Amino acid sequence: MNLVTNFISEKARVGKNVRIWHFAYVGDNTEIGDNVKIGSLAHIDYNVKIGENTMIEGLVYIPPLSRIGKNVFIGPAAALTNDPYPTSKKLIGITIEDDVIIGSRAVIKAGLTIGKNSVIAMGAVVTKDVPPNMVVVGVPAKIKYTRQEYEKKKKRWENS
């Protein structure tokens, strides 16, 4: 028996040293930078751009027109959206700038920009743009503290 484990469009451009795990989907006209990792069951739709050194965990949904920067981490089962009024005929993507961390099961509303070096907490529902260097948490997501404070907390955790 010959099982197909992934679907990667012939029209997708995939960089060097990209690892795509089982049962992932990559659509037409998608560009994936070098050293990207895509987890099992991830769905990366058409006309998406992903920067180098980005890690997309399993079960993540990335809709058409999304733009994801370099060195981004997207946690398991996070969902980006591109239709502010489902089922509208007009779609708009999400922009995630460089060095962003998105926690597991976060949801991001269509049309937003997630600023460089920001952090989206797990389970957060992001309904507004996130400024650079901020950590947002909750439903709806609100600014909790800065990325600098996040890094201090992370360091304390790792050293405890």
List its traits.
single chain; 160 residues; mainly beta; UDP N-Acetylglucosamine Acyltransferase, domain 1; 8-stranded mixed beta sheet; 6-stranded parallel beta sheet; 21 strands; 29% strand; globular
Polypeptide structure, described:
This protein has 160 residues and is mainly beta. The chain has one domain: UDP N-Acetylglucosamine Acyltransferase, domain 1. It contains one helix and 21 strands. The chain has an eight-stranded mixed beta sheet. It is globular. The model has no long low-confidence stretch (mean pLDDT 94).
Topology:
Layout: E1 7-8, E2 13-14, E3 19-20, E4 25-26, E5 31-32, E6 37-38, E7 43-44, E8 49-50, E9 55-56, E10 61-62, E11 67-68, E12 73-74, E13 79-80, E14 95-96, E15 101-102, E16 107-108, E17 113-114, E18 119-120, E19 125-126, E20 134-137, E21 142-146, H1 147-158
Parallel strand pairs: 1-4, 2-5, 3-6, 4-7, 5-8, 6-9, 7-10, 8-11, 9-12, 11-14, 12-15, 13-16, 14-17, 15-18, 16-19, 18-20
Antiparallel strand pairs: 20-21
